[in-house]
Design a protein that fits this description.
Chains A, B: It holds the Pfam family Hydantoinase_A. The structure is a homodimer. In chain A, about 40% of the residues lie in helices and about 20% in strands. By secondary structure, the first copy, chain A, is α/β, with parallel strands linked by helices. The first copy, chain A, folds into 2 domains: about 150 residues, Nucleotidyltransferase, domain 5 (2-Layer Sandwich); about 90 residues, Nucleotidyltransferase, domain 5 (2-Layer Sandwich), CATH 3.30.420. The longest helix of chain A has 26 residues.
């Protein structure tokens, strides 16, 4: 059994791959790195223990950018150390960190060359998918809760000169827009309501998730309180959060009006993702995935591989974890 | 002694006015309504007790918009009830809530007509200042930590048809930009760095306060941890927070580069305030105040009253509290 993990800033994603049976099991859990970084090793141990006997542990991360770490270098070091501790406690000897050149590295190297280990999960996903689906030429569009990766592929390999998040932001290969956490006030500066433009309140009163809930583009969940005001992710509460953005609330904004506001918010998110797409697209097959895939309408006439058709919902959500598990297995756990 | 209070979403501001000696004492304290609403009455009691014998207690609020309240109506009711409790415990018989028509109202009325009591502090400030400085025709520009009030004055009275925050947002009389809490990602969508435009990360990694600290437009404070990452409000830490906005950190962004980024952020804030100013300005004297007054460059050729020249720093910061205390005293505690 190989376990892959994607240690993000807000979520931990796990994939367990059995190379004999080719069985896969994926799941994710909410893990707010910015408050819980010190609990990381313990949570990893508990998760690893749930998988039975583990032959190897493949790690990728983006959580080093959480602002509980004073800089990314120290973030990678602390996360890498938590992984080592967890692997030791869980009795896993072989573990490696994915690098943005497609190879895996040991603990000591990862703690030195932190730049190559930091935020490399997009590279793992694109590399593995290009190979798995034999995509010679194309682009991966992977829309998560916080960000969208737009990774050009050529000759079945990642085809961007960018290595870091900063480079990818500048290039367009990383759009800092997703389907979950993106604050409404970062997407729009005004909203049209009752025929008037109203500047939005620059507060995190609502996120794009609220707009998607109101528009029924995502499933509501009355048990889920991971919202801006800690109230349920249901249509009435989401509409109330959206209304707050223009200084109103449920007493004066109907769900219908909230829908009109939500459409403008979703359109703004789509426009930003589209802009990034056109900045990096080099033609070919579009691999479209992530649980925010509704935020991208592929141009017509292009071959499309929809990951929702190919993977279960948990696997799609844990794609980088699945990718590093397979890549580590494919290279026989070779470490730099 | 009359005590005025401005109950905001993030701060409580107090002003004590002695009508005999005309002595004034002002102070403010951080009070995050969104987490601490249930403590409001206790905090008010403690504060009121510190002022000695109180003849009257004048109240204005904006805190009802905090998203711990499901809507503004219930927010006003809960805050009003906390005020009643505090007044009773502190032995203060006469207390009133300021309304956006310039009058004070009792508890029962304020709990019914919540719209007129909600977010009326701007009206109190403008009304009192127009009278105090005999401004027949002009505009109050009051730049706080979260928002800027831009209130036209005519015939020594507030001259805007807007009553609510929503109306004022649409009109331009409320700009949701301040000198403290405004998230950088709500002000700019990209920053120019090393000759390249880099889209910012849509996270609250930094606020405009960080830009002002880096540019030395506000005083740093190593003891103050009210920042996005909970680290000190000093130039190095603020520069690190600004660097995070473009996916970098202190290891690759010098303070000089952080200054260039900060200038763009401050310019964006100034532009938004200027836009609102031009939307509502009707000429005449400009009354400029608030601890963010550096974010507005008044047009030349206009008479200017700078509140920093007229008030102490604490009084300037607690302006609405001072205003309601004086207005309540001036109308002999008359209640609707």
């Amino acid at each position: 059994m190989i376990v892959g993990v994607d240690i993000g800033g807000a979520n931990l994603k796990f994939a367990a791959v059995d190379p004999k049976s080719n069985n896969e099991a994926c799941h994710s859990c909410f893990f707010p790195m910015w408050t819980d970084a010190n609990r990381l090793a313990d949570v990893l141990v508990a998760e690893l223990s749930s998988f039975g006997k583990i032959d190897a542990f493949a790690i990728t991360m983006t959580g080093e950018m959480a602002d509980c770490f004073i800089d990314r270098h120290l973030g990678v070091q602390q996360i890498a150390e938590a992984c080592r501790l967890a692997a030791t406690k869980a009795g896993v000897d072989r573990f490696g960190f994915y690098r943005s050149d497609g190879r895996f590295t040991r603990l000591t190297e990862s703690k030195k060359e932190t730049d190559s280990v930091a935020s490399a999960n997009w590279h793992a996903s694109a590399t593995w998918l290009a190979s798995k689906f034999s995509v010679d030429h194309g682009i991966l569009v992977d829309i998560g809760s916080t960000t969208t990766d737009l990774i050009p592929i050529n000759n079945r390999e990642v085809s961007t000169p960018s290595k870091t998040d900063h480079d990818r932001l500048c290039e367009g290969a990383l759009a800092y827009v997703g389907c979950g956490r993106t604050p409404v006030c970062s997407l729009v500066s005004s909203l049209l309501i009752d025929g008037k433009w109203c500047p939005v309140m620059n507060e995190v009163f609502a996120t794009i998730d609220d707009a998607l809930v109101v528009l029924e583009m995502t499933s509501p969940d009355a048990e889920d309180l991971q919202s801006a005001d800690g109230q349920p992710r249901t249509v009435p509460f989401a509409a109330n959060r959206i209304a707050r953005m223009v200084g109103l609330d449920r007493s004066s904004v109907s769900v219908d009006v909230a829908k009109q506001l939500s459409e403008q918010i979703v359109d703004a998110a789509k426009a930003r993702i589209k802009q990034s797409f056109h900045a990096v697209d080099q033609g070919g097959t579009i691999i479209l995935g992530g649980h925010g895939d509704a935020l991208f309408d592929p141009p017509s006439g292009r071959g499309i591989i929809r990951l929702t058709d190919r993977f279960s919902e948990p696997a799609s959500r844990c794609l980088p974890a699945l990718a590093v598990a397979h890549l580590f297995q494919n290279n026989r756990y070779a470490l730099l």
